[in-house]
Design brief:
Strand 16 (281-289) and strand 17 (293-303) form a beta hairpin. The strands form five sheets. Strands 1-2-3-7-6-5-4 form a seven-stranded mixed beta barrel. Strands 8-17-16-11-12-13 form a six-stranded mixed sheet, with no helix packed on it. The protein has helices at residues 3-16, 18-22, 108-112, 132-135, 260-264, 404-451, 454-458, and strands spanning 30-43, 58-72, 94-99, 121-127, 143-150, 156-163, 187-197, 201-205, 210-212, 215-218, 224-233, 236-244, 247-250, 256-257, 270-272, 281-289, 293-303, 307-314, 320-328, 334-340, 347-349, 353-354, 358-359, 365-372, 380-387, 395-401. The chain is 19% helix and 40% strand.
Length: 459
C-alpha cells in the first residue's frame, strides 16, 4: 500500500475511534508500537561534500520509522502497520526503513497525527559524512541525516541513520543510492542519534526568563562529548554556553544549562534570565557524541509591550490631541483613531500626523500621533487604538472633547472672578488708607496735648 492510502486509512481509523478515545482515562492509555510513515525529499548531492542543492538532485522518498512507541488513547484501534506497495507506480519513491530500537523518538504522536490534524510535515534526507579519522575506525557503511519539522510550531527532529548489513539484504543494490537493499526494495537503517526541540520558535517579553528546549537520545555504544549553545545575531555568531566532558563554560551572564544528571539523561535545555534585546536571535543547540554530531535551531524573539497615553494638548477652537506610544519592540506598530458622538457608533478618523521615531538606550521605540479634533456642537469621544505583536489585544485610550462654547466658559468665569477680586482688593486698600489717616490725626492731637508747656496749656 502506498503512503497516500496508508495515511487515508490512518485518518479514517482515528476519526472512527474518536468516540472511543473520549472514554479512555489517562490511566487507561497504554503504549503501543506503530509504524510512522513520512513523505520526504532525498537530497542527492551525494558523494560531493558541500554541493549546492537544487530540484534536479532531489527525489521523492519515504521514511518508515519502524515500531515507534506512542500512547494509545483508543484512536489506534484497527491501525495496521505500513506495507510497501511494489505495484503502485513505475517510479516508486526511495524507501528508508529505520529501526528506533537504540534511541527514543519524542513527540511521535505529533508525527503520526500530523496529516489528520491539518498540519504539514517537512522531511528532508541527505548524506551524512563522518570525519576522516572516524571513518577509519568503523566498518564500511553509509550514513544519512534526516530533518523533520511539523508546521504550526510543532516539534523539530534531526536523526542520524546508519545503513544495516545483514544476510537479508543479499547483494541487491538500490538503483538510486547504489546501496544494499532489502528484499522489498527498501534501504534498511537504524537511528543512532536524534536531537529534538519542541519549540523551534519562541517569543518572550523583555526582562522575562526564557527556557530553550533541546533534548537528545543516542545509541548505547556512543558517548556524549560536548553540548554547545551558540547565538547567531545580525550576521555574527557568539558562544553562549559550552559543556565538554563535565566542564561548563558560561559566556552569557546568568545563563544555566540543566544539571548534569539531567544532561546525561538527554536534557540539554538552556535558561536565559533577564532577557534584553541583545538576546534576540537564532540559537543553535549542538550535540556531539563520540561518532556523530547533530543540532537544532531555535528562533528567539524578544518583545516589549507599548504604553499608551492620550492627552489634550490644546483647547483652541479646534483642539489638538496627542497619543504617545512608548517603550515597544519590535518596530512595527499600528495606530488608529476613532470618533464617537453621544449615542452614536465609533467612526474611523484619518488625517493623523506622526512624529519621528525615537529609540531608547535599551533599544525600545517610541512615537507620537497627533490629531486635530472636531467635536461638533455636542462634543465627542476620541479613541487612540494601538496594535502590536506583543499584545494579546489592542490597547485603547479615550478622551472626551467638549464643544467650543463649553471650553470658553471657564475663561469667562475666570475673568469675572479675577475682576471681582481686584475690586474687593481696591476697596480694601481704600478703607485701610482712610483708617490710617484718621489714626494719624488722633495721634498728632494726643502728642500735641501731652508735650505743650503748662503756660500754653492754661492759655
Amino acid at each position: 500500500m502506498g503512503t497516500e492510502g496508508w495515511c487515508l486509512l490512518l485518518c479514517l481509523a482515528l476519526s472512527g475511534a474518536a468516540d472511543t478515545a473520549q472514554s479512555f482515562s489517562a490511566v487507561e492509555r497504554q503504549w503501543r508500537a506503530v509504524d510512522v510513515v513520512l513523505d520526504c525529499l532525498l537530497v542527492e548531492e551525494g558523494q560531493q561534500r558541500g554541493g549546492f542543492v537544487s530540484k534536479e538532485n532531489m527525489v521523492k522518498a519515504l521514511l518508515v520509522l519502524k515500531q515507534v512507541p506512542v500512547l494509545d488513547d483508543g484512536s489506534l484501534e484497527g491501525f495496521t502497520n505500513f506495507q510497501l506497495d511494489t505495484m503502485a507506480t513505475d517510479n516508486p519513491p526511495v524507501t528508508f526503513e529505520a529501526s528506533v530500537n537504540l534511541i527514543q523518538i519524542p513527540h511521535a504522536e505529533a508525527l503520526l497525527h500530523a496529516d489528520c490534524s491539518g498540519k504539514e510535515v517537512t522531511c528532508e534526507i541527505s548524506r551524512y559524512f563522518l570525519q576522516a579519522r572516524q571513518e577509519a575506525t568503523v566498518e564500511k557503511a553509509a550514513w544519512f541525516i534526516t530533518n523533520v519539522q511539523v508546521s504550526g510550531g510543532g516539534p523539530s527532529i534531526s536523526m542520524v541513520m546508519k545503513t544495516l548489513r545483514d544476510a537479508e539484504n543479499g547483494v541487491i543494490l538500490h538503483p538510486t543510492l547504489k546501496l544494499l537493499q532489502g528484499l522489498q526494495g527498501t534501504v534498511q537503517t537504524a537511528v543512532e542519534l536524534q536531537v529534538t526541540t519542541r519549540t523551534p520558535s519562541l517569543s518572550f517579553l523583555l526582562g522575562s526568563s526564557a527556557s530553550l528546549h533541546c533534548s537528545f537520545s543516542m545509541a548505547p555504544s556512543l558517548d556524549l562529548t560536548s553540548v554547545v549553545w551558540r547565538l547567531q545575531q545580525k550576521g555574527s555568531g557568539q558562544l553562549v554556553y559550552s559543556w565538554t566532558m563535565g566542564q561548563g563554560q558560561v559566556k552569557r551572564e546568568g545563563v544555566t544549562l540543566e544539571p548534569e544528571q539531567q544532561l546525561m539523561a538527554g536534557n540539554a535545555s538552556l535558561t536565559l534570565p533577564g532577557l534584553t534585546l541583545k538576546d534576540e536571535g537564532t540559537y543553535i543547540c549542538q550535540i556531539t557524541t563520540s561518532l556523530y554530531q547533530a543540532q537544532q535551531i531555535i528562533q528567539l524573539y524578544v518583545q516589549a509591550s507599548p504604553k499608551v497615553q492620550l492627552s489634550l494638548a490644546s483647547e483652541a477652537l479646534r483642539p489638538t490631541l496627542i497619543c504617545n506610544i512608548a517603550g515597544y519592540y519590535p518596530l512595527d506598530v499600528t495606530v488608529t483613531w476613532t470618533r464617537e458622538e453621544l449615542g452614536g457608533a465609533p467612526v474611523p478618523v484619518s488625517d493623523a500626523f506622526f512624529s519621528s521615531l525615537r529609540q531608547s538606550p535599551a533599544g525600545t521605540y517610541s512615537i507620537s500621533s497627533s490629531l486635530t479634533a472636531e467635536p461638533g456642537s455636542a462634543g465627542a469621544t476620541y479613541t487612540c487604538q494601538v496594535t502590536h505583536v506583543s499584545l494579546e489585544e489592542p490597547l485603547r485610550a479615550s478622551i472626551w472633547v467638549s464643544p467650543p462654547e463649553q471650553r470658553t466658559m471657564p475663561l469667562g468665569v475666570l475673568f469675572a472672578s479675577s475682576l471681582f477680586f481686584l475690586v474687593l482688593l481696591y476697596l480694601g486698600l481704600q478703607r485701610r488708607q482712610a483708617t490710617s489717616s484718621k489714626l494719624c490725626q488722633d495721634s498728632e492731637a494726643f502728642w500735641a496735648a501731652t508735650l505743650l508747656p503748662p503756660s500754653k496749656k492754661k492759655e
